[in-house]
Design brief:
Blueprint (H helix, E strand, L loop, with lengths): L4 H12 L3 H22 L1 E4 L3 E8 L2 E4 L6 E4 L2 E8 L2
Antiparallel strand pairs: 1-2, 2-5, 3-4
Amino acid sequence: MIATLKDIAKVLVAKHQLKQRDAEIFVNAIVDTVLEGLQADRIVKIKGFGTFKLTAVRDRESVNVNTGERIIVTGHDKISFTPDA
């Protein structure tokens, strides 16, 4: 299942009788807080929920499927999530 931030906010509205706008503000604040924590510490643990981790991905060589030309895909950071047990 793929959920958007608005979908998560709708669940909060349904389960906790929040206003839609308040739920959206809350969900966006949580996401912003996690992103800020990842930028600062590269890891964010939310007890009872899980751990977000920023991992560096190295440059790698690949092939352009349209031209067959060899290219370098530049390195970047990726976010991984591991749920708590």
